[in-house]
Structure formats: C-alpha cells, structure tokens
Please model this.
Amino acid sequence: MSQEILSQQIDQIIDLALKEDLGDLANIDGDITSNLTIPNNKIIDFIISNRQPIILCGVDIALKVFNKIKDLQELDLKKHFNDGDHLKAGRVIISGRGNAKVIFAAERIALNFMQHLSGISTKTNKFVVQAQGKSKILDTRKTIPALRNLQKYAVKVGGGVNHRLALNDGILIKDNHIAAAGNIKNAVIMIRQSLKKGMLIEVECDNLAQVKEALEVGVDIIMLDNMNLEQIKEAVKLIKGRAKIEVSGGITLEKVKEISNVGVDFISVGALTHSVEAVDIGLDIV
Model:
C-alpha cells in the first residue's frame, strides 16, 4: 500500500473519530463541558508522555488529530520522538501550547490512537525478540474492521512482517477451501489454472498427512496450523526445505522461542492485533 493511500485512509478514520467523540460538527463546540467551564481565550501548556516502556507508534496520527481540530485557534506542537523509537517510561512524546478547548477536544482521540497502535508495536517487538531472528513474526487478518492498515503498520513498526493485507493479494488454501474442493490436490490444480504469474501458493495443514499431500503437489508455503511442538518437528523433517514453513494457531510469547529453534520460516500471531492491550500514555497540563 502506498503512503498516499494510507494517508488518505488515516484522514478518513480521524474524521470518523472526531464525529464519534464530538458529534456531527466535529469541532470544539461538541465538547459541552469545556465550553461551559473554560474561557474561549484560555491558553495552556501541555505534554503527552508514556507511563511505561513502549515502542512508540501513532505519534504523527496524534498530531494530525490536533491539527484537524484546531480550527483557527493558534496551536504550537513539538514532536520529541518518532514511530519505532524505544522509550523508557516518562518520556515526553509531544509538547505543546495553545487554546485549552482545542487541546481538550483532541486529547482522547489522539491518545486512543497512540495507546492502541503503540500497544501493537510494543507487543510485536516482544515476539520478535523471542524469535531471535530465526523466524519472522507475521500478523494475520484478525484485525478491527476498517483499522487493518493502521494495525498492520503498527506491526511493522514493532519489527514484525505483514502477511496478507486482504484476500485479493495472496493465495492461502484453508481448511474450508480444502473441504469444498475435496482435497488439497484438487484445490491446487484449480488455482494453478488461472494463477497470476509470481503469486505463491500457501496451504494450511492440520496434520502430517496433509503436509505430505501439500508436498506432492509442490506448494510454496505450508502452514502448520495448531500443531504441537513434536508435530512441528516431524513436519520440518518431512518438508526438508522443499517449501517455506509457517506455524500458526495459539501462539503465545512463551512458545515463540522453542518454535523458532525448530527451524521454521514464519510464526503468525493473531493476538498481535485481535487482543492487544493499550499502553499507558497520558496528557498533562504543565
């Protein structure tokens, strides 16, 4: 995906977030509490900082939120770190000075983006470290609808690798495809009849018999789905470098090191995006 398309998507998502939090006007008039308690010309200084160690992600998106909501009010912002930076707790990520109503209206939306995306990049990096460079850590399509590209961007920031962005950019024969086609061989034959040149074929295997069948038809990548460590070891011996190997299903941080030591190419982790915890980032008036 090009940076231009991603930037357009970010603008659309921010616009939706502003309407969600501030109503249809999507500006400071939607913040009733601030309108009733803060003078229109009140100027404040503020900082945004992390309260735990993180891999930072989403800082430029947060800045876009402030700039979209500032209307004609003066707002000075300074970014102190960039996406991908490893931050110890207590670092000032953004500092600024400007109209209090603008800052308070943008606060929660900006923090939501940074907390969520930094949570993904931070978690991803933990898996990458455990893999010791022996296996690449992949994400999956188990993402929040409409936020996939942002979440997959955060995975890359954390050192992971994107699997398929969508159903139209890669062949992955899963269990239901196999059931519908009758077997792996039938599915592969049908795909090869109209496969785009250069596109790899990956097949999901639940057992060693399927691994053997996938090898017989010469697929490019074999996904070992929900296999235990002993089954993975047996599959690696069977494959003997004839296909790339991906391991998927129930992957936890504790399992990554031992799986990477077996000699697989990829380890895919749905939890990077489908069950990530937000990190603690907050805004304080100076």
Observations:
- The domain at 128-274 is CATH 3.20.20.70 (TIM Barrel).
- The CA atoms of residues 49 and 91 lie 5 Å apart.
- The chain has a mean pLDDT of 94.
